[in-house]
UniProtKB/TrEMBL annotation:
Keywords: DNA-binding, Transcription, Transcription regulation. This is Crp/Fnr family transcriptional regulator. Gene3D superfamilies: Jelly Rolls, Winged helix-like DNA-binding domain superfamily/Winged helix DNA-binding domain. It comes from Modicisalibacter tunisiensis. It comes from the Bacteria. Residues 150-224 form the HTH crp-type domain.
């Protein structure tokens, strides 16, 4: 049976970067005081809206997309449990993307200016939040390089491994058979492929004993070969921070 992360709070995400004090954890908890259930297909924000509200994603999946004037959709990013959503567009006067729930779930909205208070009170959280935003950007950049340089099989292998390692990072119970609520058309919108091309490539990869995609999950059949085909390096998504910065942080002692 496919596995999927349970509810994940933003603290679970940020503690991968550095040790947080009890004060830091309490500050983060203030961002998740108002959990709200959200439905599949619910829009959290639209392009051109001012980023007054940010969200932590406690449960479920969401995606950001660009919609052309002709109505064509391009999926740009996938948000998973524990992600802080909207942080990359925070300093702009308006959002540049739409964000929609891919599944039902739970989000915690909070005023964007709440981050300013956190930044003033905790250098450690400031660095961790910056690291989370930078990591999101690196994932998108590496996916773009993969799309531009590789064939269809490598594109799909790279994206599947990205999801696998991201999910496993916040939930060690995730196995190589894991829930993925993405249709073949979603793969196409994200990887720049037609639905027919995605379908044909997935069938080939299953016949080759690489992976199996059903409507609701993915099973990795040969992890080593997928890593080789995609040139995916999990170590390049490291949570290690620049030691010059971490050395200047105050000790995360009890508070």
């Amino acid at each position: 049976m496919a596995t999927a992360p349970q509810e994940v709070c933003v603290t679970d995400n940020l503690m991968h970067f550095l040790e947080l004090s009890e004060t830091d954890k309490r500050l983060l908890a203030t961002l998740e005081q108002t959990p709200q259930p959200v439905a599949k297909g619910q829009q959290l924000w639209k392009a051109s809206e001012r980023p007054d509200t940010l969200y932590t994603l406690r449960r479920g999946w969401a995606y950001s997309m660009h919609r052309s004037e002709s109505g064509e959709e391009q999926v740009l990013d996938i948000f998973l449990p524990g992600d802080l959503m909207g942080i990359r567009e925070l300093t702009f006067p308006a959002h540049s993307t739409d964000v929609v729930m891919l599944t039902s779930g739970v989000v915690c909205p909070f005023p964007a200016e709440r981050l300013l208070d956190i930044y003033q009170r905790s250098p450690s959280l400031t660095l961790a939040i910056h690291a989370a935003a930078a990591r999101q950007q690196v994932i998108i950049s590496k996916r773009l390089v993969n799309i531009l340089r590789h064939d269809a099989r490598a594109k799909i292998a790279h994206f599947v491994l990205e999801l696998y390692y991201r999910l496993k990072r916040v939930d060690e119970s995730v196995h190589r058979n894991f829930a993925v609520p993405l249709l073949q058309s979603d793969f196409g919108k994200l990887l720049g492929m037609t639905k027919v091309h995605v379908s044909r490539t997935l069938s080939e990869m299953e016949n080759q004993g690489l992976l199996r995609k059903t409507r609701k999950d993915i099973q990795i059949l040969d992890l080593d070969r997928l890593l080789e085909i995609s040139a995916f390096d999990p170590m390049k998504l490291t949570d290690q921070l620049n030691p010059t910065l971490t050395a200047a942080l105050p000790s995360p002692g009890p508070s």
